[in-house]
């Protein structure tokens, strides 16, 4: 397949085609794990998988290397195109018959992936603990893609399994829970909905029961929407981060939302912003808030 190079993506009109699953490719092994995950998701959804690589613009000459800016950019383009072809082979082996699109961009990966997310079903990134693309996207720019992006972002890391429940933190809107239910329906698995609470002076003795009732009520519209998905409702006293990390040991996927006032979103937007995305023992999906789910 020919690698298409873009200086700027032309926005697609609604209905032009099915939204692809977008995967960021940076040459790492974890990125190839993300390609495999993305190809399988694309097959289940009946959409293309789009593999994207972005390389930085170089405007400087490097006399010590006997290379000028144009030569540096040509080398970066060639390296990126090669990484995309390797990723394409992995995608085709994983999900034969799924259309594979290759996109090579010059620019900041955060900006490129945010733009790609506008017309994507989801965006996937690999993370192996050594940095790379996911660390850049989720790092100093304040989680640019998840906060300002338009679609769910899945960080593929840790144990990548084809079994286990999808675990979702339910706190704030139900956007993340809806995504968890949708993916569970596609995967043919169950959902574990988790709500945490902290004891406070003056709490009623039935606080736990009240929290459990609230969780069941919050999930009720989704259990009606996805009757084929078994749902376990769990209410636990404790910290949300530790709770989800513990459940991640046996989860197929952890799902959290970005609703700013929720405890689970604090894992992403607060002082311990990267703890879940970078410490979880399994892939993590970060789902932007949908105001209609408030």
From TrEMBL:
UniProt similarity note: Belongs to the universal stress protein A family.
Organism: Amycolatopsis methanolica 239
Domain of life: Bacteria
SUPFAM superfamilies in the record: Adenine nucleotide alpha hydrolases-like
InterPro entries xref list: Rossmann-like_a/b/a_fold, Universal_stress_UspA, UspA
Chain ranges passing through the membrane: none
Xref: Gene3D superfamilies: HUPs
Domain UspA intervals: 19-157, 166-288
Name the UniProt record assigns to this protein: UspA domain-containing protein
Recorded coiled-coil stretches: none
């Amino acid at each position: 397949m020919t690698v298409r190079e873009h200086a700027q993506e032309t926005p697609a009109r609604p209905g032009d085609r099915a939204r692809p699953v977008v995967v960021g490719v940076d040459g790492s092994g974890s990125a190839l794990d993300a390609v495999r995950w993305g190809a399988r998701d694309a097959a289940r959804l009946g959409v293309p998988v789009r593999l994207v690589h972005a390389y930085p613009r170089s405007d400087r000459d490097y006399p010590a290397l006997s290379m000028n800016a144009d030569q540096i950019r040509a080398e970066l383009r060639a390296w990126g195109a090669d990484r995309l072809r390797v990723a394409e082979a992995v995608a085709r082996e994983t999900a034969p018959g799924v259309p594979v699109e290759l996109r090579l961009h010059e620019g900041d990966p955060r900006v490129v992936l945010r733009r790609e997310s506008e017309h994507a079903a989801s965006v996937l990134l690999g993370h192996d603990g050594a940095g790379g693309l996911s660390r850049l996207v989720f790092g100093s720019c304040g989680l640019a893609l998840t906060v300002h992006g338009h679609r769910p972002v899945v960080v593929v890391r840790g144990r990548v399994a084809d079994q286990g429940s999808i675990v979702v933190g339910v706190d704030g809107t139900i956007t993340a829970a809806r995504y968890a239910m949708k993916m569970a329906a596609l995967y043919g698995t169950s959902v574990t909905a988790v709500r945490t609470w902290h004891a406070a002076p003056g709490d009623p003795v039935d606080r736990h029961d009240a929290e459990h009732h609230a969780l069941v009520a919050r999930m009720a519209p989704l259990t009606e929407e996805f009757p084929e998905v078994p749902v376990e409702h769990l209410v636990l006293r404790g910290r949300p981060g530790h709770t989800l990390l513990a459940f991640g040991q046996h989860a197929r996927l952890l799902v959290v939302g970005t609703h700013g006032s929720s405890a689970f979103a604090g894992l992403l937007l607060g002082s311990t912003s990267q703890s879940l995305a970078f410490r979880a023992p399994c892939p993590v999906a970060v789902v932007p808030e949908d105001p209609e789910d408030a």
